[in-house]
Specification:
Elements (H helix, E strand, L loop, with lengths): L1 H19 L8 H20 L12 H18 L3 H18 L4 H12 L3 H14 L27 E3 L5 E3 L1
Antiparallel strand pairs: 1-2
Helix pairs in contact: 1-2, 1-3, 2-3, 2-4, 3-4, 3-5, 4-5, 4-6
């Protein structure tokens, strides 16, 4: 997840430098497309890793999710795309889960709300209203969150070794 986030940051810096030097916006379109593809890659990775307990994720996962969510939110301000909305919802859900373990992620929510006021709330209202308007009554994978609540942390007693999957081994 760090490689796509690095791609996003690299292209953001390149775009800032290019605009400072007067390069035409048409040549920056490829950079914007690469940033969007990298953000989608982060969302895809989180979909694939949705079964993993968030306590096992690396602490740098939060900044990677924030960077990708910021790119998707910026893209959604220009034009609306359902797949980007679903990807953004996956990223925001993952950030919400990660916030319980890594409180720094809560600051990223504040940054997103400051940069894009009301957008996160509008996204959730829109996604939940479209989910309730389904005729069949069955949930589709695109409308439900792929994240399950995190089980409580098992605290090992003296003389026990904790494992990442929640099991405890007695010595």
């Amino acid at each position: 997840m760090c490689a796509p986030s690095s791609t996003i940051l690299l292209h953001q810096a390149a775009e800032e430098q290019a605009s400072a030097h007067g390069i035409t916006p048409s040549s920056l379109m490829e950079s914007q497309a690469l940033r969007l593809a990298a953000a989608e890659m982060v969302a895809s990775t989180m979909r694939l890793a949705s079964h993993i307990d968030v306590r096992l994720l690396h602490p740098f996962t939060g900044p990677a999710l924030f960077t990708a969510a910021r790119v998707l939110m910026r893209s959604l301000t220009v034009r609306t795309d359902d797949s980007q909305q679903r990807s953004l919802k996956v990223l925001l859900d993952a950030m919400g889960q990660l916030q319980a373990v890594n409180p720094l992620t809560g600051g990223y929510f504040k940054d997103l709300d400051a940069e894009f006021p009301g957008m996160r709330k509008a996204l959730y209202v829109q996604m939940h209203s479209s989910a309730s308007q389904q005729v069949s009554g069955q949930d589709t994978p695109s409308m439900t969150s792929s994240y399950t609540p995190t089980p409580p942390l098992i605290t090992p007693r003296l003389g026990e070794l904790p494992f990442g999957n929640g099991f405890v081994l007695n010595q």
